[in-house]
Amino acid sequence: MIKAVLFDLDGTLLNRIASVEKFINDQYKRLSKELEMVDESDYCARFIELDNNGYRWKDEVYKQLVEEYQLAITSDELLDDYLEFFQFHCIPYEGLRDLLLSLENQNYLMGLISNGRTDFQLKNLQALGIEGHFDSVHISQEEGVKKPDPEIFRRALGRLNVQPDEAVYVGDHHENDIIGAKSAGLKTIWKKGDQVSEGEESASVHSLLDILLVLDEWKAQCKKMHS
């Protein structure tokens, strides 16, 4: 019986693609004087390309942007701006609040496991207005270990006081989320978008509210087995 549902943040609960697009366009407008030597569309498109969906840290991204376009601002200043202002552009995936409320009403424990900088990810969590829904939050910088290392999943299970077969992890990244959680013994739900299934996940969904259908199906199967 599943007692706990644990989530990834970026690309799972936070619509990171839409959030980044919103932020980078705003950054250009706010810093237009310092960035006037590069066209807005070029700057935004190049940032998104270098960002690689969040898997390249921003200090490297901004250093390359400054070098390529000979910007009249330092990479550190751009990075500081990102760390301060990204939180104001966080966009949730549709159905996020309804999902969390429904899980709470069904007495599921909830946890969050995310790679990234602790302060930055906590600010984004707060910006979405959902931090109060989680019984445990584990950010890789603070933990000193990151996904897909199974240790970070084990720590979350320990905090929630559940066994691996009593928990499911929901994430969008095949290696970090699905393989990582599976190696720690958890069931997995892959929020896969348009990606092709690689068969490692216990289930896959396209939208957050579909998670409720998966859990209901598993609950029914469990009752049938024990009836």
Question: Which consecutive residue ranges, at least 5 long each, have pLDDT under 50?
Answer: none
Number of domains: 2
CATH architecture of the largest domain: 3-Layer(aba) Sandwich
Mean pLDDT across residues: 95
Largest sheet: 6 strands, parallel
Could you say which overall geometry the principal axes of the C-alpha atoms support?
elongated
CATH class of the largest domain: Alpha Beta
Question: Might you state the CATH topology name of the largest domain?
Answer: Rossmann fold
What spatial order of strands do you see in the largest sheet? 3-2-1-4-5-6
Describe this structure in words.
It contains ten helices and six strands; from the N terminus they run E-H-H-H-H-H-E-H-E-H-H-E-H-E-E-H. It has 227 residues and is an alpha/beta fold. The protein folds into two domains: 4-15 and 92-225, HAD superfamily/HAD-like (Rossmann fold); 16-89. The protein has a six-stranded parallel beta sheet with strand order 3-2-1-4-5-6, sandwiched between helices. Strand 4, helix 9 and strand 5 (187-191) form a beta-alpha-beta unit. It is elongated and about 70 Å long. The mean pLDDT is 95.
Outline of the structure:
This protein is 49% helix and 12% strand.
Note the main attributes of this structure:
227 residues; alpha/beta; Rossmann fold; 6-stranded parallel β-sheet; 6 strands
